Automatic annotation (TrEMBL):
Lineage, uppermost ranks: Bacteria, Pseudomonadati, Pseudomonadota, Alphaproteobacteria, Sphingomonadales
InterPro entries: FAD/NAD-bd_sf, Flavin-dep_Halogenase_NPB, Flavin_halogenase, Trp_halogen
Residues holding L-tryptophan: E354
Pfam families found in the cross-reference section: Trp_halogenase
Name of the molecule in the record: Tryptophan halogenase
Domain of life the protein comes from: Bacteria
Origin species: Sphingomonas metalli
Entry's Gene Ontology molecular function annotations: monooxygenase activity; nucleotide binding
UniProt binding sites for 7-chloro-L-tryptophan: K84
Length: 522
């Protein structure tokens, strides 16, 4: 498109979660920011499958689904989804049988970080940090749902996100986007990228539908990165010197109708990586993440087999299909080049330790809409601003993931290599020195919309037994009453909330009786 031309058409290239979530969010919200009508077209290859190994979201997804007009109960049923209340980390400190800590979604009481740590030390009753300052570990440990079914959709007694089937989620978004939000859906192969004289992308050429022109293009083509990387030449910033995991084996394990549904992602460390375990209504997604420098594929298969024999007894490893995934942690040098923005895997990927993939899609769309380019005039300025923001966010993600490793005291070669000072980002190394004298605070994380707030660092630092700073005990007196009330609330929630399995059994029964019963709006 020529300079000054209005942004009247957005072409999204690629489907899956990134493409269809982008299409739905833009179609639902573009009227809030655009001064003129904007058409949304999604071009999707009919032959590219969605990577559906089980996926976790952040609590932000509740707002996103509400904004695009999806009913929560319908979403939960159609995507085989379950509630996620944070992550549990097993074996990360020492590998001992009782080695466990939590990163819940409910933050600690809202007090100064020094008062928080001093209050935990003085009034926490000797309990682990997360157990003392949040009700959520106790609730999730009981496999309880974070809400009653008669609560309004997307409301909860505790903060929560979702575990879901990524393939079913993309299919639901496609039906919703094309059927209710007016997204034009083109199923065809992109055979060429057409550039204008200015260097912008003018159109994508398809095999059967010809050229599909647009004013703004979203690259949702995954690791292939056909537009931003292939046509526009944005290079790849390799972060594998910091995050060395590069492979995963994934399986889907069916579960019976009475099997408890875990209320958290379970991340279990092993000698050369970690395993994920994600509970859905009808199955569990289990995977072994590893670094090929320290473990070969057969070794990873043996780790996965041992985990299944312990965590999913009765499952014959030889009967479940195993998918191998290969990846490189890193991101694009530029995320927005000329009139093309990369969203999802085309922008980058890091190991899924803190489920950052889908939230980065949401954040990318929020940033695009907050500074929507009405025409071509200011688009390059908006692109530079976007790039600065997302370089900052990717740096914080890499640092936060690395934090889980550098605090470990495990002594296998892989874990010693993870603690090598040469692999630790300089800013993180500095912060770790500072955090021996004072706990993480907003001063360390100055952005208004930090991707990980200070509370997340508290949960990992003190969950991994990082030395807490020496703080005068009197500083923590302000937390004495809040912690007492928190313990009372935890007991009340444990007595009143249903198990996840009971919640979804009731939801399915209500759905069978009619949509009014299952809407969650009674």
């Amino acid at each position: 498109m020529a300079d000054g031309t209005e942004t009247r058409s957005i072409v999204i290239v690629g489907g899956g979660t990134a493409g269809w979530l982008s299409a739905c969010v833009l179609a639902a919200r573009i009227g809030e920011v655009a001064t003129h009508p904007v058409d949304i077209t999604l071009v999707e290859s009919p032959d590219v499958p969605t990577v559906g190994v089980g996926e976790g979201t952040w609590p932000t997804m509740r707002c996103t689904l509400r904004q695009i007009g999806l009913d929560e109960a319908a979403f939960l049923l159609e995507c085989d989804a379950a509630f996620k209340q944070g992550s549990r980390f097993d074996g990360w400190r020492t590998g001992a049988a009782d080695d466990r800590y939590w990163h819940p979604f409910v933050p600690p009481p809202a007090v100064d970080s020094r008062a928080l740590v001093a209050g935990w030390q003085r009034h926490g009753g000797g309990r682990a940090f997360a157990d003392a300052v949040s009700p959520q570990p106790a609730i999730a440990a009981l496999d309880l749902a974070p809400r009653q079914r008669d609560m309004p959709g997307y409301a909860g007694a505790l903060n929560y996100a979702y575990h879901l089937d990524a393939g079913k989620f993309a299919a639901l978004l496609a039906r919703h986007g094309a059927g209710r939000l007016g997204v034009r859906h083109v199923r065809d192969h992109v055979v060429a990228i057409v550039r204008s004289a200015t260097g912008d992308i003018a159109a994508v050429s398809t095999r059967d539908h010809g050229a599909i022109a647009g004013d703004l293009f979203l690259d949702c083509t995954g690791h292939a990165s056909l537009l931003i990387g292939g046509a526009l030449g944005s290079g790849f910033v390799d972060r594998s010197a910091t995050l060395c995991n590069d492979r995963a084996l994934a399986v889907q394990v069916p579960v019976g109708p009475t099997t408890p549904i875990a209320a958290q992602t379970i991340s279990t460390a092993h000698e050369a990586g970690w395993l994920w375990d994600i509970g859905l209504q009808s199955r569990r997604g289990i995977g072994c993440v590893y670094a090929s420098r320290f473990m070969d594929d057969d070794g990873a298969a043996a780790v996965l087999r041992r985990y299944l024999s312990r965590a999913a007894p009765g499952i014959d490893y030889g009967t479940v299909p195993v998918r191998q995934l290969r990846f490189r942690s890193g991101h694009r040098e530029r995320f927005w080049v000329r009139n093309c923005l990369a969203v999802g895997l085309s922008a980058g990927f890091c190991e899924p330790l803190e489920a950052s993939a889908i939230v980065l899609i949401e954040l990318s769309l929020d940033a695009l809409l907050a500074n929507f380019p009405q025409d071509r005039t200011a688009m390059d300025v908006q692109a530079r601003r976007f790039d600065r923001l997302f370089h900052y966010r990717w740096d914080r993600i890499v640092e936060f993931l690395k934090l889980h490793y550098v605090l470990s005291r495990r002594d296998e070669p892989y874990w010693r290599a993870q603690r090598d000072p040469d692999t630790i980002p300089p800013r993180l190394a500095e912060q770790l020195m500072v955090w021996r004298e004072q706990p993480p605070s907003q001063a360390d994380l100055p952005h208004v919309d930090e991707i990980f707030p200070p509370a997340s660092y508290h949960y990992v630092l003190y969950g991994m037994d990082h030395p807490a700073p020496a703080i005068p005990p009197a500083t923590g007196e302000a937390l004495a009453e809040p912690l007492t009330l928190l313990r009372q609330r935890t007991r009340a929630l444990a007595a009143s909330l249903p198990t996840q399995r009971a919640y979804f059994d009731g939801l399915r029964r209500a759905a069978a009786q009619g949509p009014a019963s299952s809407s969650g709006l009674r």
